[in-house]
User: Fold this.
Amino acid sequence: MALPLALDALGGDHSPHEIVAGARRAVDELGLDVILVGPPELIGDPMGLEVYPCTEVIGMDEDPANGVRKKKDSSLVRAAELVRDGKASAMISAGNTGATMAAALLRMGRLPGVVRPCIATPLPNPGRAPTVMVDAGANAECTPEMLVQFAQMASAFSRTRFAIAEPKVALLSIGEESTKGTPLVKETHQLLAALAELNFVGNVEGRDLIPSPVDVIVTDGFTGNVALKTLEGSLKFILGKLLEVIGTDEITKEAGNAL
Assistant:
């Protein structure tokens, strides 16, 4: 029997109501087993789901490391401890990303040999499996060795999650040539090219994020987060302009209906 998922019921902009409602749907529609973690008085109606009680919450504006160290009875910390103690298979939170990473790191620990964990973000790729971008913001400063490990972990994730036999791995840079980029990028390129276990295909540029010709894109957390937020802002702008135009006359109404 599979272990349940530990869900931070107080994480996210619209918690706890939307979080609880989503958990209820996951149970009903996907057959998942979910435990809500959080102060019962703040969660309110758990919609029939099990609640693992705690007394504290780490806010979105709190320092991640301090929040995890000081609020030992927070929903994030308790969710991580459920995984550590073998009572849950994974922890999920839509809240403070840094605190989620810190809670996982301090309570669950790392796999042997892994220097730092990273954030993997699947980017939509029309017509094929998503492209996994790492790191999307966990580590603002990285070493070449860290980026190599990110590539290895993301490749394994892509192979397991999206059933890609030999994921194509690329390094995000300012040019396709191996001589382009910062010292970090150029040194990482040399290390990745020397790894026979990875299907490393070289550099890609910012224009190759969506759609992407590769399965894994590797970069440091600072660059990855800027790239991700740039994509989000661009898509919001385009969608907003489309919505402004659609419905203004008969032609655009027909176009809107077609969409």
Summary: DSSP finds nine helices and nine strands in the chain. Residues 5-108 form one domain. The chain has two domains: 5-108, 121-228. The radius of gyration is 21 Å.
